[in-house]
């Protein structure tokens, strides 16, 4: 019985996609870095580019190597673990750089404008802190 865990044709197509995506991502990151005036933003772009440009080829390479072993072999499990860790690392760094860090920067720059109103003596008189007469 022939067991194919990840077909070779899919790996080849994914490899071509990875080459094209990596080239486009590299050139767009390079252009973004040349336009950035903030040093911390430049470091974030370098970190994102490094993570994506390393983890994507590692995923493709490991998926291509997975055809050498059967799923029962420990080496196959190790290759599958490397693919998972590479994908997970790329997702975590991407989320941190593209989602979490800009939100924390925006909240830090917001200053006093986003604070909840402090309850006043009107609250004691039966009014709610938002100032509504409900």
TrEMBL record:
Transmembrane segments: 12-33, 45-69, 75-100
Keywords: Membrane, Transmembrane, Transmembrane helix
Keyword Transmembrane helix carried by entry: yes
Protein name per its UniProtKB record: Uncharacterized protein
């Amino acid at each position: 019985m022939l067991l194919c865990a990840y077909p070779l044709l899919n790996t080849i197509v994914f490899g071509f996609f990875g080459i094209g995506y990596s080239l486009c991502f590299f050139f767009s990151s390079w252009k973004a870095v040349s336009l950035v005036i903030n040093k911390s933003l430049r470091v974030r772009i370098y970190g994102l580019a490094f993570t994506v440009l390393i983890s994507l080829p590692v995923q493709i390479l490991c998926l291509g190597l997975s055809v050498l072993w059967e799923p029962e072999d420990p080496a196959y499990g190790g290759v599958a673990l490397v693919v998972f860790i590479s994908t997970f690392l790329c997702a975590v760094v991407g989320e941190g750089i593209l989602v979490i860090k800009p939100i924390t920067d925006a909240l830090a720059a917001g200053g006093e404008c986003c604070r909840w109103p402090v309850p006043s003596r009107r609250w004691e008189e039966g009014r709610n802190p938002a100032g509504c007469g409900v």
